[in-house]
Amino acid sequence: MEPAGARTAAPGGAAGLLLRLRDKLLTWQILKTVALGQMLSLFICGTAVTSQYLAEQYKVNTPMLQSFTNYCLLLLVYTTMLALRTDSESFLQILKRRWWKYILLGLADVEANYMIVKAYQYTTLTSVQLLDCFGIPVLMALSWFILRARYRLIHFIAVAVCLLGVGTMVGADILAGRQEGEDSRRDVEVTGCSPTCTSCPAKRSDVVIGDVLVLLGASLYAISNVSEEYIVKNLSRVEFLGMVGLFGTIISAVQLAIVEYRDIARIQWNWKIALLFMAFALCMFGLYSFMPVVIKVTSATSVNLGILTADLYSLFFGLFLFCYKFSGLYILSFIVIMVGFVLYCSTSTWTAETVSTSLPRPASTGLDNFGLKLEEDDQEPPATSIQVTQEENGMASSS
User: Fold this and answer.
1) Which helix (H) or strand (E) holds 108?
2) Per-residue pLDDT averaged across 188-213, rounded?
3) Its pTM surpasses 0.90
4) Which among 26, 65, 299, 344 is least buried, having the fewest CB atoms inside 10 angstroms?
5) Residues 6+ apart with CB under 8 A from 398
6) pLDDT: is 254 or 200 the higher one?
7) What does residue 290 show for φ and ψ, rounded to 5 degrees?
């Protein structure tokens, strides 16, 4: 005889599948991760809109000056906090032990910001949007070798879905004519050519320069993000932001004096331009302050997938500020990117660590997560020669 309750153990058919998908994909943990990622996207949107408004309305193209204001804020807030901290390594001890590493990290971060923004002056909007995605596979590769992250098949499928969403967004740009308008203005300002010119050698070489800048910038972003994930999970958020603020300010100030002093001298300052600079700096400061929190409870790869929607938020603001044309493909692109992001977050990555059986496991994987954690499992895993920890959603276990 069939055991009692066997038929009601789990609903079957399509209803059962939908319930299992709901339980897998629509958890509070995933919804929180999605919300955190979209907050970062809104910060990026704020920097993009203010930069574009400065460029189009006031002819101000000073990416290094804008970045310099952000690094100064980080210096004033987090470097000061780091210098006054007494519960861990002192500021001077950190500089003595890891100063050269933070110089390289600051250089990578400053140049990544500069190269991506500079690329818009040479290549097309489509190229920047597509080639900027090169940073995601670079980030995954660096995470594999440096952070020892291990991915499942679902993660690669999720990344492919997100990139499909980016392709849909680019197609919508082309169909809506946004690409052509921006590229025409760029061609006249940079090369002096007519917008209809297609054979000018200078234009072709400029496009190549722009594409190379995007690839280099995306790779440097990947290096910066992997370093950030390691530092905030093993050291502290304040140390990362304080050191980036210190060396980022120094490096950007030197580069600012070399490459942008003429552009700064031509700015016709008024309260509107000053307000836009302030808005950009605050959005950038919010992005830098909040991103380590999100990376600590997820991962750098997850964060980079989540912020792919930033261009779409910028577009929605552009509908009102810059008279962009709307296309239903933008909504489809947003949905596809979000589906890929949720798929990626639905299954945790794994970190393989080679450990000694005689060594105790560290009690903590990081400090100062700003009070925001997803779920953590504090159980001690058994000592093994190969430890596999579940990392993506902030939990640890062993197999």
Assistant:
1) helix 91-119
2) 60
3) no
4) 26
5) 381, 382, 384, 387, 388, 389
6) 254
7) -90, -30
